[in-house]
Amino acid sequence: MSAQLQNAPTIAAQEHTPVTPRTSQPRERGIPEATVARLPVYLRALQALHESGTPTVSSEDLAEIAGVNSAKLRKDLSHLGSYGTRGVGYEVEYLIYQISRELGLTQDWSVAIVGIGNLGRALANYGGFGTRGFRIAALLDADVSIVGDKVAGLAVGHIDTLEDVVEKENVSIGVIATPASAAQGVCDRFIEAGVTSVLNFAPMVLNVPPGVDVRKVDLSIELQILAFHEQRKSDGHVESGRIGQTGNAR
Amino acid sequence: MSAQLQNAPTIAAQEHTPVTPRTSQPRERGIPEATVARLPVYLRALQALHESGTPTVSSEDLAEIAGVNSAKLRKDLSHLGSYGTRGVGYEVEYLIYQISRELGLTQDWSVAIVGIGNLGRALANYGGFGTRGFRIAALLDADVSIVGDKVAGLAVGHIDTLEDVVEKENVSIGVIATPASAAQGVCDRFIEAGVTSVLNFAPMVLNVPPGVDVRKVDLSIELQILAFHEQRKSDGHVESGRIGQTGNAR
DNA sequence: CCCACTTTGTGCGTACTTTCACAAGGGCGT
DNA sequence: ACGCCCTTGTGAAAGTACGCACAAAGTGGG
Ligand SMILES: NC(=O)c1ccc[n+]([C@@H]2O[C@H](COP(=O)([O-])OP(=O)(O)OC[C@H]3O[C@@H](n4cnc5c(N)ncnc54)[C@H](O)[C@@H]3O)[C@@H](O)[C@H]2O)c1
Ligand SMILES: NC(=O)c1ccc[n+]([C@@H]2O[C@H](COP(=O)([O-])OP(=O)(O)OC[C@H]3O[C@@H](n4cnc5c(N)ncnc54)[C@H](O)[C@@H]3O)[C@@H](O)[C@H]2O)c1
């Protein structure tokens, strides 16, 4: 079989002594998915603070910027270890390093995008990609009239070279931006080639074996969720209040 | 104030709703967010079944297609009411109607996209948009060299006409595809103009007042989450198992 | 009309999240 | 050195979400 399951319990356990300088904290293995999904948000907020020259920040302030409850933020960070100083807060630069390390951003990840249509091109041209450890290693498409085109400085390759590219470029994350009908096939090839992380933009549920992570970005679903709440608001209710940013989780 | 919050605490909660004086069975007001987020997935699966001529489907089969546990699916559907027939399953067409109605897709929603750059164009050209009750009412940008261009059959308008457009076209959902630096400003204008649902593609946390829904789509965060798990996999662990599709929730 | 069989709807225990509230830790002024 | 004040880290409570297991409900055959 393959399919199903939402979040996984995350294991925990072993872990030698980290590299951390002095006050290193034992950090337990097993960070909650909900926390993992928020770490990138904290990281972005911290980088903004760092760029503006702020040396330290309290959980209260950082939480405000990140749009979360401060207790939640502290608990999230506590999963990484005790990197704060009571009475003071967290050292911005140090925390950036810790979160980056935890997320695996201290190493580079090669990404291959398949389906260089409207969306694929936008993704390829998206600068924010490389800013954080992600490198677009290849752009692939099945349409021979597109193959060879230069997009964002990269020549589009033919889908048939997927396996070669994955191996040569050591691709670890596959992005699928093809029509839904081709998504499963592309996904299977990625997996067969050894890729175990997939980001899917096609509006369909991919079937994958255990051990493979798939995250989906589905515009249509987002709109439908918004429509649901919008309808509620005008449904006569005075009530409804949804609040701040809701994105993905697990 | 305004700011904060990530996922909303789910309104549901209180909302006794003494409303329905009738029989007890009917759907209580207050569908769990997690359920709302899955309804669109079920809907899509059902439509595929409908197109292939399938008249009824069991929770087991539908769950398989949607990639979820069948008990979860049944519980989700039970929030809408009892639309299944024991021993048979659910009537595809009827269920499509019920879910559509619940999601508010039986009415049309006008959408305005701001920021017609790489991503904005891809969104505008995205056909799947209109397929389900969503109509792109306007495309706006601040760059005068873009204003006037025809994208997906629509002329790009100037951002200064936002308020007029929202009123004239009765826009209820605003899509932000501008650089992060302009996102909050655009968001504020949308809200000021009366829009209470926003879909944000800019990598930043928007500050909004209560009553306004914001959903974000953040490519960078998705990649970072994948990187986290990818790192775990190679961290020596044999273990890690994340599985099937993970998308947004709440 | 009754029985065997299928599938729904849901009670219940478990697990995960969020939030509150506060004791303990640490810096700083005196 | 001492004590005050600020902020962290976290136990515990409350709220949600999941998925199992099964009684109830409906179908079709005999
Ligand atoms: N454009 C958007 O804003 C948007 C939004 C949400 C979802 N999506 C989804 O993203 C996907 C891509 O959207 P798009 O607008 O870029 O579509 P598109 O038609 O512009 O591009 C699809 C590309 O995939 C290529 N392709 C088709 N089959 C392939 C295969 N087997 N192997 C490799 N490449 C193949 C095509 O040649 C084409 O270049 C679709 O599934 C769409 O539903 C798009
Ligand atoms: N392209 C992607 O794949 C991608 C992926 C993830 C996130 N994003 C985010 O989406 C946003 C748009 O990305 P893009 O690649 O399309 O960028 P882009 O630079 O191509 O387009 C941005 C557009 O917004 C317009 N704009 C700027 N300020 C504006 C304002 N105040 N009002 C109205 N319009 C304004 C610009 O004129 C431009 O046309 C960015 O925030 C980016 O980080 C993009």
Number of helices of chain A: 8
Number of domains of chain A: 2
Name of the CATH class of the largest domain in chain A: Alpha Beta
- State the distance separating the first and last CA atoms of chain A: 22 Å
| Beta strand count of chain A | 10
Strand order of the largest sheet of chain A: 6-7-5-4-8-9-10
Low-confidence stretches of chain A: 1-28
Ligands? nicotinamide-adenine-dinucleotide
Shape call of chain A: globular
Order of helices and strands of chain A: HEHHEEHEHEEEHEHEEH
Strand content of chain A: 15-25%
Overall SS class of chain A = alpha/beta
Task: Kindly describe this structure.
- The structure is a homodimer.
- Chain A is an alpha/beta fold.
- Chain A has 2 domains: about 15-105, Arc Repressor Mutant, subunit A (Orthogonal Bundle); about 110-215, NAD(P)-binding Rossmann-like Domain (Rossmann fold, 3-Layer(aba) Sandwich).
- Chain A is about 35% helix and about 15% strand.
- Chain A has a 7-stranded mixed β-sheet. In chain A, strands 1-3-2 form a 3-stranded antiparallel β-sheet.
- Chain A is globular.
- In chain A, about 45% of the residues are buried.
- The model of chain A is unreliable at about 1-30 (pLDDT under 50).
- Chains A and B meet through helix 1, helix 2, helix 5, strand 9 and strand 10 of A and helix 1, helix 2, helix 5, strand 9 and strand 10 of B.
- Bound molecules: nicotinamide-adenine-dinucleotide (NAD) (2 copies).
- One nicotinamide-adenine-dinucleotide (NAD) sits at the interface of chains B and A.
- The structure holds a DNA duplex (30 and 30 nucleotides).
